[in-house]
Specification:
Layout lengths: L3 E5 L5 H8 L9 H6 L4 H10 L4 E6 L2 E8 L6 E6 L8 H15 L4 E6 L6 H8 L3 E6 L5 E6 L4
Antiparallel strand pairs: 1-2, 2-3, 3-4, 5-7, 6-7
Length: about 150
């Protein structure tokens, strides 16, 4: 039986996050592809350290298996990634919920993310099932922008 734990991301998690991003089943990005986008272990680590890009990681038996990061200033869910062997267990959903709660406490009223517009891609129905709605916008890569309105009680 695997022991799952969740915790806030630490700056020294960044290099492993980049490695895991290249191992995801859909929408994988290699370290080289991320570097071309300006995303390096150093820049990711800095975002975690200064709080501008907070995140949560999931660990199985102490080993990182997935994570979710957001942008504190814009409310964007920047990335949700999980190793394929751990898909379908509610881990991605739990990580996303933690990130939504974290950003909500920052006073944000709307979160957004970019998601494939292809209904055959798992993320398409994953986010919609959790209440994210299409905005009608797309990003420069052709991905659809989804949003989540937050209510503050």
């Amino acid at each position: 039986m695997t022991h799952l734990t969740y915790r806030p991301a630490k700056s020294d998690d960044a290099a492993l996050c980049i490695k895991i991003r290249g191992l995801t089943r859909e929408n994988a990005f290699s370290e080289q592809e991320l570097n071309a986008l300006g995303i390096t272990a150093e820049s990711w680590s800095t975002g975690i350290q200064d709080g501008s890009c907070p995140g949560f990681v999931a660990c199985a038996d102490g080993q990182m298996i997935g994570y979710c990061f957001g942008d504190r200033n814009t409310g964007e869910i920047v990335v949700l990634a999980l190793l394929p062997a751990y898909e379908g267990l509610g881990i991605g959903k739990a990580l996303l919920a933690m990130m939504v709660d974290k950003l909500k406490t920052q006073g944000l009223h709307r979160l957004f993310l970019a998601c494939s517009s292809d209904p055959n891609v798992r993320s398409y129905s994953f986010y919609r099932h959790l209440g994210w709605s299409p905005t009608g916008e797309t990003d420069e890569y052709g991905d659809e922008i989804l949003e989540l309105q937050l209510s503050h009680q």
